[in-house]
Design goal:
It is a single chain. By secondary structure, the chain is an alpha/beta fold. The protein has one domain: TIM Barrel, CATH 3.20.20.70. The protein is 42% helix and 15% strand. The chain contains 14 helices and eleven strands. The strands form three sheets. Strands 9-1-10-11 form a four-stranded mixed beta sheet. Strand 6, helix 10 and strand 7 form a beta-alpha-beta unit. It is globular and about 55 Å long. It starts with 7 loop residues before the first helix and ends in a 5-residue tail after the last strand.
Amino acid sequence: MLPKNFNLQLRNKIFGGSRIAPEEALELFSWDIIELGKAADMRRKIAFPKEEVGFIIDRIVNFTNICEAACAFCAFHARANQIYSYELTIEDICRKVEELVQAGGTQVMLQGGLHPDYTLDTYKKMIKEIKTRFPEVYLHSLSPSEIVHISRKSALSINNVVKTLKEAGLDSVPGASDLLVDRIRKKISPKKISVDEWCEVLYTLYHNNMKSSATMTYGMGETDEEKIEHLAVIRDIQDRTGILRAFIPWSFSPANTRLENIQPATGIEYLKVVAIARIFLDNITYIQAGWLTEGLKLAQIALTMGANDMGGVLMEEVVVKATGIKTKTNRRELVGIIKNAGKIPVQRDSEYRVTRIFHDNA
């Protein structure tokens, strides 16, 4: 029995696989969570008919917390007398990469603050040294904000920066998006890049035959209309480039930030964002369940509401941890969670190719 005032025409449009407009996506926030979940799962089956859910063994290496941006939503960047600054040496970084390789991992995510003294040469040497020592490792690293920062510090075009980093061994760039709404960005991260600059980096990656992803950090004072505005930017980028392998939404963790008075988003809100993203982003195959920020149980539920990937095991993660969230997992636990969601657990590589199918909890 469908609720009163239920938009049957929109439901039929969704189940028929048609693209929905932003104003129709906005209406979905008012839908019953069960009906929304069913619609999202149907759209997942259209985008990805298999019942497999993948994950990768990876490691985030945060090589510095010195950052000019000093965003209000960040609990990680160095602040005098509160969080002390650090910089990893090349040897420190390579030691962490070696630990990943020894554990059977395949992907490294190099991430750092917008360091005032780092230039293109700094990042080039870092990437080249890692690739020289560990040619088998896939570097899914840096971010659009870091790319623009390098461009400014080195007085070079974004294209020159991307081309040089690719030649040094950078494989792809995570499309760390925060929230692609300039009203919010001016409020919480005025020193970081604008929406137009984020798009410029993504177009540059496309012209250099490099892949990316897109994220969404919500719960920072935006409206539902602005959530859809964010998704619309991503859908348009994907229409134009096709370089986004995955979409990863997560809720803002306010603890220990300058926005700690904001009420954290609820689990229902997270599931609605996942489901609406799956329905609206009809051109992206993989949507990740955010176990790190949302917890493993909620991520498991998201697998029935449009998500079809669990991201990485994350041998090391310190940015989210700085907000007080300490969720951890391992391969065996992820396999069990995926199986208990009625899905087939698979280990994958950075290009989402299956490398192992788990028939037990090994």
